[in-house]
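Final report, results section. Input specification for complex C-07:
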Amino acid sequence: MWRSFECLLITRHGYTRQEDPTQPDSPVFNYLSTLSPIRTFNLSSSAQSFHLFNFASPPSALTSPLNNCSKDSKITRAILLPDEPKNNNLQNRIEDRSAGTLNAAEQSDVHDEEVGNFGSGGEANVSTSAEALKLVIELPKSLKYDSGSPENKISLSDSVKTETESNVAGTEISSAELVQSVTKDADRSFENEMGEQRIQMEQNKEVCDWEKFIDEASDILSCGTPSKEKHQEEPDEKCVDSGTLSFVATVLQSPNDFDDTKKMDSACPLIFSENHDMDTPLNKSGAAKTNEADLISAGKSCAVLTEEVVNYSSTEQDDKQQKMTRRRCLVYEMSGTHYRKLLDSSPISKPPVSPNTSKEKCLAANKPGSNKFSSLVPGIGLHLNAIAATAKNKIIVKRQTLTCRRQLISSPHTITSMDLPSSDIKSFNSPIVPSLAGSDSNEQKDEVVQAIQNPCQSSVFGEGIEFPPSSPKKKRRKLENSGDDDSCKRCNCKRSKCLKLYCECFAAGLYCVDSCNCQDCLNKPIHEETVLETRRQIESRNPLAFAPKVIRCSSTAHNGDELEKTPASARHKRGCNCKKSGCLKKYCECFQGGVGCSLSCRCEGCKNTFGPEGIAIFREAQIEPEESSINVSSYHGISETDVEHQGEVPPESSKQLDQANAKPLKQARQPLWQPFLFNGITPQIPSIANPPPIQPCENRVTENPDESDLIEDLKIASEDETPEVLKGDYLLSTCVKSASPNCKRVSSPHCHDFETSPGWRSCRKLILRSIP
DNA sequence: GAGTTTGAAACT
DNA sequence: CAGTTTCAAACTC
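Structure output:
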């Protein structure tokens, strides 16, 4: 009478089935035969019954699929569900014991609690076998540890529903009919299934008793973590934190798969065993007819432990099993961090997690929003800006090379990033930020460090804009040659002991690493006190010393990500003081940061393309598109193709501008913003509507008398073609810095509020009209 | 790789 | 705050 897959082995975290309890040598068999059920349920309609066992002391042999993970996963309860009559010693023995010793079991100390919760009655009558199905369906849903997320509800396949309905109606349908029925509806979405199931369940008026039982059973089962089980604690590290693992059965079968997988599924337990013995026919009877339990197990309704199944599939050559893996999703939660399943009704379009997906990858991939770095902000210093950029793009890749391992300097001090959006500051888990500095979670710090191990890759070139790492030439070249722009920032300090802002590592709030070429370095964790003290001293002199050198104009956020990425929307916090470089070399921090010079700059002969001279360059490009536009494009290190792909390398020098091979501006400007796109980022545009601020730098002169025309064009462009989001007051009335014909910058009277903000004071917007 | 240039940081 | 020095990265050869 007992069928293997009808033995639900309940753990504190879920349910599973271990193996065929009907096998004489089965540990389940042997164990169950020694127990008395704490509760026996009789199905009035079929004269069948099933038993609820409580394992006060779970046998070592009975372990769940999670058994390799945690002792907590040991089976604590079992439910034997009835099926087709079958001579079975176990059944007989259990029934004998049930009749004779049930009371004793109820009175036992071991079972007192559970029995008490369960109720006084030793038996419960259940009217229909369909209701028995609901037990299978509802049990996991009722499990304590499965609560809380919509995914944790078992999905009931159409096949199950169909079968259930069929049985409720008291009719028998053939397997072929079932298959047909299932196939017919197989393309239904998971949501519909869920919703329909719920509706159906609600509409079923005949299951009051059964639901009561479920509730009671749920209570019993969910309280299955009594103090008695404390000895089981100490989860294994290898485990996927079984503490909150939950299973979700789902149906991910495509119609095409059905026939092929049906056979397999018919032999597949409702819940996989840990050894993935999916192919082992458990239905020893070989019954041609598929009864309801078969369909459940065949089911198209299987709970899968993701990792195991995934790994299983990775090594499995059998197409069937691959299909099975493809059809199934797993959902498991991890204490606090929820591993989200990828429930998908279309397994083909959305295949499950890659076989090689690790838990971490799973987490990263499936929980992008939960990633603590996902909302990192423009960080602190160059490195952290890079972090922010990386995190922003959700390309947080843990590059755990030894050379890149870097530990952030944990300082009790906080920067007052006046220009950082508060939300960013909140979410930014930098040690420089108190949220993490004050945290005792070293793990968090480590993760932060891991997430930003390659801060140097991006310098401060805005979001997604990368400059070559500012490491020693040798290394830089090596890295460049290798095509790896993810190199780490390394300093080469000789005299500063890496305790001054000269040191890039220190300035970025990072400890030096072994790969640094510094000498007498004190910027290491072992000198933490010294480092922190030095930091305090520096911050006492300049509270913003460790603030990002390039700050973003967060107010542009309302225009979307693109504007946020606009290089011109960011400014160097202090401005440069270049004299000879023309702000065209990386000596210039503005240039290095990929931002235009601003009011706060005191540079001479500024030719920063992101600054006013950029307009002249662009103008030149208009006049001589075959040449100048090339320069413009190449200056940004962006070819036509590159424009569409971010992360290009900026020019090393203006010399390269002349040497660069680029395409005509006309081509490179295909998108409206393209000529000044910086890695696809739209710069801001000057507007005559609001007189640009007076330019303090005398060299910031526009020599081209026709520039006004250009600006006029630009203005028109902004009015005519600017996306709506750019047409707001922000665009035309914000502080706009631009080169005016008289070489003076005029502050807009309308940008009062913005000018009070250091971040906005230097903002400008360049909007270019596309040239036909 | 050595030397030079450059500009920020540090110092006075 | 300005001038000077120190420093290390960027750059050139």
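DSSP finds 31 helices and twelve strands in chain A. Residues 2-239 of chain A form one domain. This concludes the modelling results for the funded period.
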